[in-house]
Amino acid sequence: MNLTVGNGNFATDSRVQLTGTGSLPSAFDVTGLAVASMAAAGTAVAQLCGRLGNLTPAVAVDRALASAWFGLSFRPDGWDLPPVWDSIAGDYPTADGWIRLHTNAPHHRAAALAVLGLPAGAEREHVARAVASRSGVELEDAIVAANGCAAVMHSRQQWLAHPQGAAIAAEPLVHWGPERRVPPFGRHDAGARRVGPRPAVTPARPLAGVRVLDLTRVIAGPVATRFLALYGADVLRIDPPDWIEPGLEPEMTLGKHCARLDVKSPSGLARLEELLAGADIFIHGYRPDALDRLGLSDAVLAGRHPALVNVALDAYGWTGPWAQRRGFDSLVQMSCGIAHAGMEHFGRDLPFPLPVQALDHATGYLTAAAAIDAWRERLDGRVRNARLSLARTAVELMRTGPSLDASDLPAAESFAWEAESTGWGPGQRLPQAVVVDGVPARTSVEARGYGSAVAAWAGG
């Protein structure tokens, strides 16, 4: 799987029908990235349908809706979402440049404040004063060493000269592991290990009954598993006991059963092992060494569960000195030069990121495409692991310039929003941006909070 750039913009396969006009304002072709990554996921669905039936259905992507889905696809009706960002998260001038602090998780906030010598209740102005006298790189290193999350702003040239930038540039967009041979499934078979009947797999419901174990958080991984759920996958999301993302829960839990599990405890790890034994696809957003420390390295998983499709994503890639570093979309944008390029392009005097968290969303749809492609191969007895990263997706985006379609996107009110029930109350969801002919993207599992389900597969 690759993304194609021509004339400074992303180009999609000629077999994908493109509709709609308009672009998100950016120094890069962000709307083109939205279209291309969604087209990749839609094409993977179509090819799986072709494997299950006689014909490969057509795929269409709406440019305006793709741009909208890269923001928020859900809006509440009669109630409000909590803020997405923590009060001190954001960009700050340092003594020698700019740094971004990511403090949405309580322990990341605590780490940043501890390094700055500030109390737990510190306000934004206190943080700004404490940051202003510090060297950006020194502060970044100290916060990362304290298990926090921060990133200084680099230019594109500085990032390419950085050891991590050079390592990322040498990685493929999707890294495929070595192939394993396992017994193939029958033409209409689905998941491998379960009790009782499983839903019928058809070209109209190509992932029906396929069990997806989701150990991802925030945006990229949840986007991938939400997409799989819309085409029939049985998604079980596992979060730690104390993880919270209230501003994103209605957005990212659609179609999923969400449970909590302390996988660092002996009982939690044993339960995770049981869930893996019943899973068909495993998608996780852990840093490269995290599962290794739990005794669940790629090699161990391949030995215990050779038929398991294992797809991983992280922030800063899988090689180089930052391979183990925590990261998020907004931090990667600072590190790799995107925020600096935006600042120059728009003539601003402070970091100017993308209008949406496009690295997260694009990597999510590319992850979904990789998982579906791997599942299609699994049906024929071939199994390969896949790895992706936000930083490697950024390489593709930075090959582009501003969109050649400079027209404005339609207002959100012009879309035919669809009524939806959630665990918090009624709301509305954007119509689908990618359409696979004859294959509806739908789910009967409403969005509900983390920990609203038990850590078990439905049906045993």
Task: Tell me what the structure shows.
By secondary structure, this protein is of the alpha/beta class. It has helices spanning 30-52, 63-69, 106-116, 124-132, 136-145, 156-161, 163-169, 220-230, 249-252, 266-278, 290-293, 298-304, 329-336, 338-345, 358-379, 390-397, and strands at residues 4-6, 9-11, 16-19, 59-62, 74-76, 90-94, 97-101, 150-152, 175-176, 180-181, 211-215, 234-239, 256-260, 281-284, 309-314, 382-383, 386-389, 418-421, 426-429, 434-436. β18 (418-421) and β19 (426-429) form a beta hairpin. The longest helix is centred in the N-terminal third of the chain and has 23 residues, at 30-52. Residues 187-192 have low confidence and may be disordered.
Number of strands: 20
Poorly predicted sequence stretches spanning 5 or more consecutive residues: 187-192
Main sheet summary: 7 strands, mixed
* Fraction of residues in H or I helices: 25-40%
Ends: how far apart?
35 Å
Mean pLDDT: 95
Strand content: 15-25%
